[in-house]
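Here is one chain, start to finish.
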Amino acid sequence: MTSKVKINLEYIVNCSPKVLYNRLNTASGLTEWFADDVRVRGKHYTFIWEGSEQTAEMTLHKENRLVRFSWVDEEETYFEFKITRDELTSDVSLLITDFADEDEIDETRGLWDSQIAELKHVLGS
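Its structure:
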């Protein structure tokens, strides 16, 4: 088994942390840009893409600041959304942490780029 590599990405998003947070931690918000469908049962979120499903548990959340989902079927891998605001410019950034196999890093980055482009479109930013 190959070990996963941690990837950190940052995107500037033109909206308030509160509006952004709502798109990161609710089934309806995540369905708008992240997955075809999202089902929530307690802390477990089932993400559906083109017929395949993956389940993650929301293991960390701080209102308007942070959401982490840990994959149920993959130990020690998760994806995390962290919202920051630059004190000088007031720019809101979305920092994403994810994991990928070494040979899939570029593909994973590209996937996030397209997902975040969709998120920005949904947010009108």
